[in-house]
Design a protein that fits this description.
By secondary structure, this protein is α+β, with helices and mostly antiparallel strands. It has three domains: 34 residues; 296 residues, Jelly Rolls (Sandwich); 148 residues, Methane Monooxygenase Hydroxylase, Chain G, domain 1 (Up-down Bundle), CATH 1.20.58. The protein contains twelve helices and 17 strands. Helix 11 runs antiparallel to helix 12. The longest helix has 32 residues.
């Protein structure tokens, strides 16, 4: 992969996890036996805290959202639920696998992916003109249409909220064409619950037109479903005593910097019996879903617990996701949410990885005119590019896709052809590695052979290590808890004597041989 390998990136991720753990332990030590304070709308000072410390959390109450949006989106949630389109993910945290308590589905732009907790999700495409998408059922098609409509609505609302905030807080931006509509700020808070601003001008983002578009053009939505009554154990919130968490404290991953995250929240209606349960006298009501916010790694600022009524929308604007952490506090009823994001997809789209593969394959001299295939260049720069791409397509795409079983066929067959194409390109790269190994065995100067081996060996070792890891993950005990069509498949996989494959699945013998050659040169 480009300048650094996946292994080095994995090392940095592990270092980041250790740093987070250290910060968490330091925070807990400072707290001792105490709980940090937090406020809800029932508390004095809630709105003052909101506008001074959490102003970039924007709330749009359900009553200000068009009725047709509610109707279409809520129907779409239940449609996808009926067709079993929500899936629990088998994610990897600190080297261990966990099944997520929340079920999810990713809907978005054609060929886009979104990676979280070392798991790459593949979009079920939402409808676009000039593209024919075969959905498993017409109702699934209608549901996806509802979410692209919601996406467009939230995009408009996000731009409006940012523009309103900018108009009020600064007159300095001359490059941006904004709406001529100047709202009275106090009225906008009362009528729409849209924005509360910082007192400090130092916190005011200076937006320009390109920023508005780039930070608000949501390219996908991660839909969530959770029924807290079906969960055997939900973690208690550890810092403030906010109650049970559906999602622990975190920053959202893999987003365009300073982009907004927009969330539509829908908790199912309570029965008449449920509504008789008394509310707790202090703290947040455990029957109601809340989003919790805190300033990252800070014990001086009280936390915020924002109740979410049925159909509320909230927006985490600008750098809020970077400077603050948020969690989702479980209510009593099942809840759906649609979380719209500007995913950082520079390396996460189908065109990107196809382009990488095709560039790598330019170094393959194909069969023709009675010639066997061969490599055009043995330069270490070209070798490195091919072998890094080889690892990237195998472990970031093919194995990620098949690790999720055949779940996507429940919604659409759109990914079948692209994944088959990627596998065919990957097979050609297997051939290129085999051709390179043949060249290394031929007469070479010590300098040439040493250069090729030194370039290839670390990438083969990484390939072997990751193959073993994915093979182990595919046969873990957790796999047995998943439905049959969602169980991981270790693919591609082949036996050592497979005549269709130029190299074995297990590369240990090849690695030992290369290391031996390298040791001879060095000695």
């Amino acid at each position: 992969m480009h300048e650094c390998s996946m292994k080095r990136r994995g090392g940095r991720a592990a270092a980041s996890d250790r740093e987070k753990d250290a910060k968490k332990q330091k925070l807990l030590q400072k707290m001792g036996e105490n709980r940090l304070p937090y406020l809800t709308p029932k508390d004095d000072g809630f709105h003052q805290l909101w506008k001074t410390k959490y102003s970039k959390l924007v709330l749009r109450k359900a009553g200000k959202v068009p009725k047709e949006v509610h109707e279409e989106v809520q129907k779409a949630f239940f449609t996808l639920r009926k067709h079993d389109c929500f899936f629990q993910d088998l994610v990897r945290i600190k080297g261990k696998d966990f099944v997520t308590p929340i079920s999810r589905i990713l809907i978005g732009n054609l060929g886009y992916t979104y990676k979280y907790l070392n798991t790459r999700l593949f979009t079920v495409p939402w409808p676009k003109e000039s593209y024919e998408i075969n959905y498993s059922h017409p109702e699934i098609s209608e549901a996806c249409k509802a979410f692209i409509k919601l996406n467009d609505y939230l995009h408009r609302e996000t731009i409006q909220a940012l523009q309103e905030q900018n108009l009020v807080e600064t007159k300095e931006t001359e490059d941006c064409t904004v709406s001529d509509r100047h709202w009275d700020f106090a009225t906008s808070i009362t009528e729409s619950g849209s924005t509360l601003r910082d007192q400090s001008q130092s916190h005011v983002p200076k937006y320009v037109c390109s920023d508005l578009k780039g930070r608000t053009s949501y390219n996908l939505t991660l839909l969530n479903y959770m029924d807290p009554q079906q969960m055997l154990f939900l973690k208690p919130e550890p810092y403030f005593g906010m109650g049970k968490m559906a999602v622990s404290w975190h920053h959202d991953e893999n987003l365009v910097e300073r982009s907004t995250v927009a969330v539509y929240s829908y908790s199912c209606e309570e029965s008449a019996v449920d509504t008789l349960v008394e509310e707790t006298p202090s703290g947040r009501d455990p029957a109601i879903w809340h989003v919790g916010l805190k300033v990252a790694w800070d014990i001086a600022t009280p936390g915020l617990a924002m109740p979410l009524d049925q159909g509320d929308c909230y927006f985490m604007q600008d750098d809020l996701n970077m400077t603050h952490q948020h969690c989702v506090l479980a209510g009593r009823q099942p809840r759906f949410s649609s979380t719209h994001r500007v995913a950082e997809c520079s390396r996460g789209t189908l065109p990107y990885i196809l382009d990488r593969c095709n560039t790598a394959l330019e170094n393959l001299q194909a069969e023709g005119d009675s010639r066997s295939p061969s490599l055009k260049s043995l330069d270490v720069v070209d070798i490195k590019q091919v072998e890094e791409t080889h690892n990237e397509v195998e472990f970031e795409w093919l194995r990620q896709f098949w690790f999720q079983g055949r779940r996507y066929r429940k919604c659409t067959d759109w990914w079948d052809k692209p994944i088959a194409t990627l596998e065919e390109l990957w097979r050609k790269m297997e051939l290129m590695t085999s051709l390179l190994l043949d060249e290394i065995k031929k007469e070479q100067t010590e300098e040439q052979r040493n250069g090729m081996i030194s370039c290839l060996l670390p990438l083969l070792m990484e390939r072997q290590e990751l193959r073993e890891e994915w093979l182990t993950r595919c046969h873990s005990q957790l796999v047995e808890s998943l439905p049959e069509d969602e169980k991981p498949e270790c693919h591609p996989y082949w036996q050592e004597d497979d005549p269709n494959m130029p190299l074995p699945f297990n590369l240990e013998d090849i690695i030992v041989e290369l290391q031996s050659l390298l040791d001879k040169v060095e000695s």
